[in-house]
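Continuing the batch. This is chain 6 of the set; chains 1 through 5 are on the previous pages. Same settings as before, nothing changed between runs. Recording input and output for traceability.
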Amino acid sequence: MSEDNETRIREFIDRVLTAGEIDATGDYFHDDVVEEEPLPGQGPGLHGLKETLIRIRHAFPDSKWSIEEQIAEDNKVLTRFIWSGTHQGELLGIPPTNRVVRVWGMVIDRFEGRKVKSTRILLDMLGMMQQLGVIPAAPAPGSNPKTR
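Output for chain 6:
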């Protein structure tokens, strides 16, 4: 069962997140899916998830998601991933910067049957905001801004 769930998540990432087939999201998530940590502005259920995926796809039309690691136990799958893309549309009130981002994240998906019933995504939002130039990047290791 857990290997099948891992495969379902891999299919979702390839088909929906990377290839952009947002309408296929319902093939992988229940209509009343619960996002435990919704992204800003995300509405409830499958409809809210699809709207958020559309916004991300609009902002980063060349999005690519790659799985770095998966761990499955019982009806849960943890997926560690890298998401990359070029910021070409507004996202979270940030106008396009045309900067490329590379963001790490993890998601824990809980299945009921062959579909995800609840999900919890953790993204390196600080790193993404630094890459977009919205907030200053941290100083390089070993540098001391006070000695400059």
